[in-house]
């Protein structure tokens, strides 16, 4: 017997319209649940962007003594530049270091700049890493390099010629790891709660139509003939709820994020198009899955032989 897809689609739409009160309740439940999941997911993206921006500020500075041979400085710079962990390396001369110090200090403490009679700042190599979490590895390599011991500005205590935050870096990465784990756990927990909530709503909607299912069985309809329109109806409800949730998130993203971004200019409070598309696809996919599963589980009780 051939399967008439158009018949099942028409039946699903008609059932949706005939039982619009229960259908509307299911759509609203799916919409609110997916909206909460979407907001949490978008918040997770923003928090992750902020965490990454903070981690990217982790750099290593190698302070160089006055009069260090330029060949040694260039040699260490080339060695570090060729390291797979290093993204970029910049030589900052004494004059450039003093210029940057004045630019940073002049507005808040001009008296400090005015009292400078000569340049007390050392030249340095400023190192940016591809992955800030490898900072300790690159620091260990620098310490083990004999050229570093020749040119560092504190040969009596070479450790003092390196600046990378030491313990602050360890605490920063511990904190960012905790933030990521908490956000992931919260999203998973919210998704599970939403699944249970939506499933119960669909079960109630199908329970209200148990007599309709019983009559179809009495006239000899097969389980799949009865089940298919309900499954499609569950998918329709999920798609409408997901579309409403995505539209709401789009409005919030367009209306609120630019204002937050203008207020918090020092933080990357934004969601790019790729992340928005991923969140939208996740909501549509999870909504359809929940609609199908919820309908299938709820129908099992009434289709038992």
Describe the protein.
The protein is α+β, with helices and mostly antiparallel strands and about 300 residues long. Helix content is about 70%, strand content about 5%. The chain contains twelve helices and four strands. The protein has helices at about 5-20, 20-55, 70-80, 95-105, 110-115, 135-145, 145-150, 165-205, 210-220, 225-255, 255-265, 275-300; strands spanning about 60-65, 85-90, 125-130, 160-165.
**Largest pleated sheet:** 4 strands, antiparallel
Measured on Cα atoms, how large is the radius of gyration?
31 Å
Average of the residue pLDDT scores: 81
Shape: elongated
The secondary-structure class comes to alpha+beta
Strand content: 5-15%
Separation of the first and last Cα atoms? 22 Å
- Number of E strands: 4
Helices, by number, come to 12
Tell me the helix content: over 70%
Low-pLDDT runs of 5+ residues are none
Q: Name the helix and strand elements from N-terminus to C-terminus, one letter apiece.
A: HHEHEHHEHHEHHHHH
* Sheet with the most strands: spatial strand order: 2-3-1-4
């Amino acid at each position: 017997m051939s399967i008439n897809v158009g018949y099942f689609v028409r039946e699903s739409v008609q059932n949706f319209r005939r039982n619009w009160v229960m259908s509307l309740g299911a759509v609203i439940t799916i919409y609110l649940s997916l909206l909460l999941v979407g907001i949490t997911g978008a918040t997770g993206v923003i928090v992750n962007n902020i965490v990454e921006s903070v981690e990217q500020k982790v750099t290593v500075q190698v302070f160089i003594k006055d009069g260090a041979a330029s060949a040694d400085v260039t040699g260490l710079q080339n060695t570090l530049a060729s390291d797979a962990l290093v993204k970029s390396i910049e030589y900052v001369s004494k004059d450039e270091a003093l210029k940057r110090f004045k630019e940073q200090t002049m507005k808040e403490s001009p008296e400090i700049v005015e009292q400078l009679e000569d340049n007390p700042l050392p030249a340095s190599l400023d190192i940016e890493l591809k992955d800030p979490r490898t900072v300790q590895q690159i620091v260990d390599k620098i310490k083990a390099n004999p050229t570093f011991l020749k040119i560092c500005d504190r040969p009596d205590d070479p450790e003092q010629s390196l600046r990378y935050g030491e313990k602050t870096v360890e605490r920063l990465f511990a904190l960012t790891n905790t933030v990521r784990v908490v956000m992931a756990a919260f999203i998973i927990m919210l998704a599970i709660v939403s699944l249970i909530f939506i499933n119960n709503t669909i079960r109630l909607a199908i329970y209200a139509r148990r007599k309709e299912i019983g009559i179809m069985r009495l006239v000899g309809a097969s389980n799949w003939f009865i089940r298919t329109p309900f499954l499609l109806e569950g998918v329709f409800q999920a798609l409408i709820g997901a579309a409403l949730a995505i539209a709401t998130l789009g409005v919030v993203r367009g209306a609120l994020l630019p204002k937050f971004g203008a207020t918090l200019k020092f933080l990357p409070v934004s969601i790019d198009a790729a992340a928005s598309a991923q969140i939208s696809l996740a909501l549509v996919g999870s909504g359809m899955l929940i609609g199908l599963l919820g309908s299938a589980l709820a129908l099992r009780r009434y289709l038992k032989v």
